[in-house]
Amino acid sequence: MTSRRIFRGLSGATDRNLPKHQARRRKNEQKKLKVPNESQHTTAANSSTTANNPSNVLHQTDSASQSIESEENALQETHGEPSSSEDFSRSTAEIQHCRKRIRNVQESIQLSDSVIPRTWQENTLNAVLNCVNEAFAILNHYKCEELDKNLCKELSLALFMLVQLSMQSGPMAGGKPGYFKRCGSDVAKMALKFLEDAFPEDVLRIIEFTEKQSDAIQKWKSNAQKAIEKDKAPSK
Would the CA dihedral through 109, 110, 111, 114 be positive or negative? Predict the structure, then answer.
């Protein structure tokens, strides 16, 4: 009788961990397949119950619609019309933002030393015009009782001081704002166009400049018109 030599591994740490017999694996897999799935039975039972009782379907539909309506009502309450206090805080924030923009433009004009008319028009007059338009939009949008009177007065004063600074900067630099006798007719045309675009009658009424401030703006318009009619070159 001959004996076979059985290979027992290479004397490693896991050589004795032989795999399980394949027949045992197949038996366990067959048992698992025979066990019914409880979740499938539960789903089937629920579907059969719903099919037999249509009133349950209606009840679930009604509850779902009620929950949707309650959510919509909550959203309407959350995003409803703003209260007067919210309008007041929003208008105050917008006025403060406009004043900050005016300060930034004012600092930019003070730091600029360019006397070229086209550069003055683009960097100074257009920037000041944007500030005027923003202030007019804020004051025109909100009602008078919704605004802080002190903030409105401060905004109007800061805006007038910015316009006054633009009328004595660049090619019009000097101690007197709106002095058109040395700048020439081309600069006077730019200044007049800026003043007419920035301050029509409705803007002067909404921004509520003082009478003295409004008279100064009208005087600058008149002086610019006279300089255009004279059509003189700028003095050296």
Answer: positive
